[in-house]
Amino acid sequence: MSLPAVSRLFRSALRTQLIPVTNWSSKPAKHNITVMEKAVALTALFAAILGPSSWVLAHLEDYKKKA
Description:
Elements lengths: L2 H13 L19 H24 L1 H7 L1
């Protein structure tokens, strides 16, 4: 590619900028989430993320012996 073609490519890429659109609402929530629901959700999230990684770290010596 020649320099003018590359220059045109960069100019067109910079000219078409995406503007993010957000859907913010100032209304109150339709459904109130209880503290218990939040606690269950956070516990499930932590278990889903930390459970498998902690299992792998606990069995790291087993993996070393297989290799």
